[in-house]
Amino acid sequence: xSHIVTxxxxxxxxxDFMEPxxxxxDAIERxxxxxxxxxxxxxAQIVTLDRVPTELDARRLxxxxxxxxxxxxxxxxxxxxxxxxxxxx
Length: 89
Description:
Elements: H1 8-11, H2 22-47, H3 55-80
């Protein structure tokens, strides 16, 4: 009979010293609108996995894609700043 033994590294992989830093938590908070929009898009895609999408499903997918894209664009614009160098708009 062989014994099953846990590996110490696997047990302590999420020890207290492995917590996310404040900067990492701030980055997650900034990206939260993108994450939530992507979750909505995945929900819309999951609904249509086992059937032919109806017109309502197609509309829901289009809206979810637009929201996800808009959230990503907003995140990039916030990261880059609202003004471009050289006075371009």
